[in-house]
């Protein structure tokens, strides 16, 4: 997933001038993610707090380049990105490509690379938003991604070779071929997400979900696939005669689920686990609208890089703020929506969507333009519709 630089691209004179005096380096960037297994225990990694990039567009358009054949650039745009209020690093981007970057930090942000042996020894020297995202995802796959913390700690090596993604070569259609452990992603018959059609559901009275959510702390992490909050607190869902503890929640854009042919801007997945290790995921669909207070708290503390983990003060997270008032739901058995696509997950999709503001949505989509798995066949599964 490394962006290809077109061949024969000419370099703007300004870039040459700057690249002559600036040391080439990569920089840090924004991002977020989705745990390989929804219920993974948090991987305690110290946060490398990096300032948010500030972008300044200084000149455009530059003079067209005269060239022949396919080597034609009609416009050039020179952009200087300053990362950090104190001028931590500066990069020059011309025509969408980073030509030069300087980092005044004495310690390179890649000092936390314990997996250099995996082949990801260096950071890409491009810091355009897309390159940043690509880099973040690749790094996420190395650092955690599909690998469970235990396997991760074992640092075998082969667990770092497969980088599943939501798009491209390593996207959902190829997950099963990336690793034997991911085979269920293709062979499973009870996969998630699904498209719920009320014409095919089994409507009727169903038990009331009992949410016992209390203000909690925890931490928010960008795992390279999503923004995830690992909770430390007392949050329990009682359903089907079992007590499921809320472990973490995370987001997808767009929503993975569809209902009656309608898609949604986002979805929050609230991942619960009971004493037997069984998972129950509550899906809260999200449309644009009023700002959400809980998401505001999380976004305010948005991690800045993969495995950057930001602590949340005790009591800050009130999960009731993301539950709709109408708690009717759809219910079916499905799977994790990310590799290894493990089945046997109880899904509870809330019927009433919540809302986020356009700004809240924009912030997430900047990090994750697309982190949703396509809908999977129901294969005759029963979908209960609680009335
Ligand atoms: Zn999810």
UniProtKB/TrEMBL annotation:
Its EC number is 4.2.1.1. Residues 1-31 form the signal peptide. Residues 35-47, 158-168 have a biased composition (Basic and acidic residues). The keyword Transmembrane helix does not apply. Keywords: Lyase, Metal-binding, Signal, Zinc. Residues 33-71, 104-132, 148-169 are annotated as: Disordered. Residues 148-157 have a biased composition (Low complexity). InterPro entries: Alpha_CA_prokaryot-like (IPR041891), CA_dom (IPR001148), CA_dom_sf (IPR036398), Carbonic_anhydrase_a-class (IPR023561). Belongs to the alpha-carbonic anhydrase family. This is carbonic anhydrase. It comes from Hydrogenophaga crassostreae.
